[in-house]
Structure formats: structure tokens, C-alpha cells
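Regression test case RT-17, inverse folding.

Input:
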């Protein structure tokens, strides 16, 4: 799979980089991290210009996130309205909307690079919950810049060991994602326990 992706990058150049970054932000199962690593390696060998790779990958990722956000804006309110017909669900949705408005920008930021598998879904929820577009765009663009620089930069720096690097990054990404989910679950549990058993 990885070799096929590298071959596509070699044959079609930055079009593959842009398409991969864009489509992965819409929850399509594309190993974009491997594409970014490969693009960085090709830049190191002189086939691509490094800043071109960085700019195109970043722009396509931001555009993909904006598309997901807008889909959430268009379809989300109707979906949330249907779910809100149940009074218990309505209370949960109201809390979720308030949480996203107050703290959603940091969640958007972290979902673009640290917890990237959550990114497409965060985009939809942010749009559906009416997170202000300016806040979403700022934190999203900042997070995507970090993501692009990390992966393209690693490919550029370790081009000679690209295959090994791809495997390490895949394992590392899965570990970080699992740890993030575990920490998030623990934080929610601690918060609920504190609310149920407040300290005197």
C-alpha cells in the first residue's frame, strides 16, 4: 500500500498530495500521513520544491476542513433537531453545543494534528454546533500547519529511511490516538465524579 502511494506521488506529483489532504479531512480512509512523508522525501531529493509541498498540503487540508465544517452547518441543524425530539437528548445536545462554543477551538486545534483521526468528525460537529467560523478557521489553520510541517518535515529529514519511518509513524499515531482517548475518558469520569460527590 505504501509503495503504491509513493508511486502515485512520483507519477502525479502535488495533485496527489492535495487530493489526499483534502479527502482525508472528509473522513475518507486515505493514509495521508504516508503521502506527506513521501512528498517530503521527494522534496529532499529535489523532485519537489519543499515550500510548494508545504503550501499545497496545508491549503488542501484547510479547504477540506472548511468543507466538512460547512457540511455540518448545512446538515447538522436538521439532524440535531430530529435528535432533540427526545427531552433527554435535547439536554445532551444543548450541553454539547455550549461546550463546543466555549472550548471547541482547542478541540479543533488538537484534532488536526495530535488526534487527527477525530478531525473530520470534529469539523462536522463544530459546523453543526455553530462554532464561529473565524475561531474555527484560526485554530484549524494553525493546527493543520503543525500537522503538515511535522509529516512533510520528517519525510524531508529522513528520506533515506522512508519505509522504516512510515511504519514507525503509523504505530506512533495509533498509540497517541489511543492514549488521547484514554485520557479524555478519564477526564470525563473525574468530572462526573466531582459533580456527583462535591468536596465539602
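Golden output:
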Amino acid at each position: 500500500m505504501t509503495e503504491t502511494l509513493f508511486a502515485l506521488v512520483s507519477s502525479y506529483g502535488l495533485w496527489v498530495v492535495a487530493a489526499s489532504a483534502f479527502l482525508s479531512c472528509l473522513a475518507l480512509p486515505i493514509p495521508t500521513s504516508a503521502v506527506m512523508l513521501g512528498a517530503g522525501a521527494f522534496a529532499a531529493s529535489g523532485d519537489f520544491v519543499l515550500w510548494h509541498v508545504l503550501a499545497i498540503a496545508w491549503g488542501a487540508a484547510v479547504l477540506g476542513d472548511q468543507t466538512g465544517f460547512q457540511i455540518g452547518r448545512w446538515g447538522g441543524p436538521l439532524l440535531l433537531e430530529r435528535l432533540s425530539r427526545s427531552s433527554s437528548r435535547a439536554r445532551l445536545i444543548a450541553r454539547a453545543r455550549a461546550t463546543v462554543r466555549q472550548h471547541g477551538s482547542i478541540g479543533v486545534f488538537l484534532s488536526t494534528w495530535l488526534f487527527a483521526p477525530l478531525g473530520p468528525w470534529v469539523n462536522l460537529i463544530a459546523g453543526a454546533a455553530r462554532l464561529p467560523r473565524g475561531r474555527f478557521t484560526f485554530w484549524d489553520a494553525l493546527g493543520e500547519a503543525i500537522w503538515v510541517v511535522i509529516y512533510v518535515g520528517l519525510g524531508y529529514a529522513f528520506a533515506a529511511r522512508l519505509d522504516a519511518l512510515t511504519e514507525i509513524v503509523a504505530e506512533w499515531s495509533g498509540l497517541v490516538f489511543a492514549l488521547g482517548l484514554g485520557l479524555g475518558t478519564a477526564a470525563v469520569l473525574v468530572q462526573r465524579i466531582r459533580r456527583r460527590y462535591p468536596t465539602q
